[in-house]
Request: fold
Amino acid sequence: MIDTQLSVDVLQDDTRLPKVPEPGAMVIFGASGDLTARKLVPALYDLVARRRLPMEFVVVGVSRTQMSHDEFRKKLRKALDGQRPGGVSDDVWDSFCGNVFYLSGDTNKAETYEELKGFLKKLDGERGTQGNRAFYLASSPTLFPSIVEKLGEAGMNRGENGGWARLVLEKPFGRDLASARELNIDIRRYFEETQIYRIDHYLGKETVQNIMALRFSNSIFEPIWSQHYVDHVQITVAEELGVGARAGFYEEAGALRDIVQNHLMQVLCLTAMEPPVAFDAGDVREEKVKVLKAARRIPEDEVENFAVRGQYTRGWVWGEEVPGYREEKNIAPDSTTDTFVALKLFIDNWRWAGVPFYVRTGKRLPKRVTEIAIQFKPTPHAPFAGAGNLEPNVLVVRVQPEEGVSLKIGAKVPGSGFEIRSVNMDLLYGTAFLEEVPDAYQRLLLDLMLGDPTLFIRADETEGAWDVLDPVIRFWAESKEVSFYPAGSWGPEEAEELLMRDGRKWRRP
Reply:
């Protein structure tokens, strides 16, 4: 059984011996790409620096680009130097890079996998990796079915000599419900569900996990976390950047597929879920699936009353004029791709009946911020003069950039009068804890090697999220209507009207 104290043992509590994974190899497909250099290798380097990985751990990169082992290592070192203002420890790097290897090959050809299989067997003997393999698909999602099929045909969907084999899939997982189901079927022809780790780096963020800690370890919050006391919930994922070099991907995906289907829906599930029996993979993921099952499906003919699709135009961000989306390189001049999405959702269960969940995400907004705001109902009667202008209590969980929790309460202003004013009680992670907050990929890669899927996404979670959003996807595919907003604003007017119709308004983070 998976250790239910994993998050404490591994990352936080220095009074206990940390869990160290078994020996093994991590094979990264698409190793010459941006994700490997920017996220995966820095996370693995940090884990080595913190002695969280065994000495018998190796990384094998696989990609089309022709490179030797040394050229691959030099490329990764250069990328790592650029991300570490304080410098990279030569001792740690030497220890790490000596276990980093590279194979060039076409992932559509069987001979690439035969070569990889032989190389991994060789490493088993030389480095003691014991036949354990984690295959990380950091390549284009269009290649997932082919890579999985070739791994299965080469017999690498099982570990060697009793070892284990695990498969990691990056988002986006499908484009809609039908494609997600088809992809699940394709993958499970060769890998069992227990071997599959669908990764969403948001679930590795400490503050996202803190939603559960806040709710289920504090008796003052859980009793009021329901329709009896909560007026509504707002979840915001805002970015100040435009599409940049991701134009090709973004034209195909848009904000709904890129952020809402995964990040936002996962955060919504953690916010709305019932208490799990234990903090383990089965119980936690089962409660998240129940939320998705209870989420009200939006009738296709009512999408305009529940969803807003926006796209940024030319505007100003931090004093700099920036181009509109249709002016970006490789973007169609008549594109209707969503760079902003706002939705009103309902969870039709006993706890949340009638409570709206407003979610939004967008590019070229005033600042980068991710937060969950639980707004409580106003007091039924305020006996103080001027208390009618008092703001309702709001509990805010800030995921980024300044991780923490804030609670807005009413308090008396010092003086002889009795004036009440709203003030914030703040907990900042950076000042409350001495430990450095680990990067999300550190946590998730370590859990992968430990075989703990708690913070990874199960097949029915993925399909459930697509099922909720499919009516919106179909309606927008037929409609050419898109609401525009200037870069540097908080989105189109239609998004404001979505809440104003209910007598509410968006928070300004």
Q: What stands out?
A: Residues 315 and 322 are 6 Å apart (CA to CA). The first strand starts at residue 24 and ends at 29.
